Amino acid sequence: MLELRLVQGSLLKKVLEAMKDLVTDANFDCSATGFSLQAMDSSHVALVALLLRSEGFEHYRCDRNITMGMNLNNVSKLLKCAGNDDIITIKADDGGDTVTFMFENPKQDKISDFEMKLMDLDSEHLGIPDAEYHAIVRMPSLEFSRICKDLSSIGDTVVISVTKEGIKFSTRGDIGNANIVCRQNTTVDKPEEATVIQMNEAVSLTFALRYLNSFTKATSLSETVTISLSSELPLVAEYKIADMGYIKFYLAPKIED
Amino acid sequence: DTKQGKILSFFKKI
Questions:
Q1: ipTM score
Q2: In the list A78, A121, A154, A178, which could disulfide-bond A173, CB 3.0-4.6 Å?
Q3: In chain A, which among 124-143 make CB contacts under 8 A with chain B?
Q4: pLDDT tens column, A170-206
């Protein structure tokens, strides 16, 4: 038996919006730790890892580990039927082939439930080693989103370089080229407005802007994004989900042919 | 020239 009650239902709505364009079908794993997902996009260039810890739910019952395969576009359609202030409960029976999403409005005078068929998906879990990154940059998520959007009007790829000067985003296209540098800035009114650069070694890597733009769909989940870079590893863009966990996006760099 | 890397060349299936 699985029963997860999330008071802040809008979080789940936002999580699905953040993932549904990147990943079509995915297995949600439910265990004592929490509600999680790991999935790659269809071209195996990017990977998303989600964790919503059990402590973040008002009620969390998971008698045994369950894997539930779902089409994220369909889940997103169902969650669009929930109001932003609704409480969302996810229910499933052990060994069953359906999942139920129940929505309660704040006044508790409207209760909806939607049952959805589960899918049998091949599980492709990848081991993500703990790594020491050359550079870790925390910046406002809205700023990162703006930069990715602006640069994609000029080019298809971005070179992200971190030096002592700051983090530089560069692109080139038919009409010309563009560089945006964000310097470390900790003299701000609120900590979430800061740009904080931790650099062990300078690093410069090239990425497809299309994927970075897709990651920025998670912007509404967190005011900050943490970008981790190492020359031998995929980029990690992490959006923390307050009191609950995170959504992390991994993107393989472009490599010399 | 550059080509797009793949996640599977960095992380292994478990």
A1: 0.96
A2: A154
A3: 124-129
A4: 999 999 999 999 999 999 999 999 999 999 999 999 9
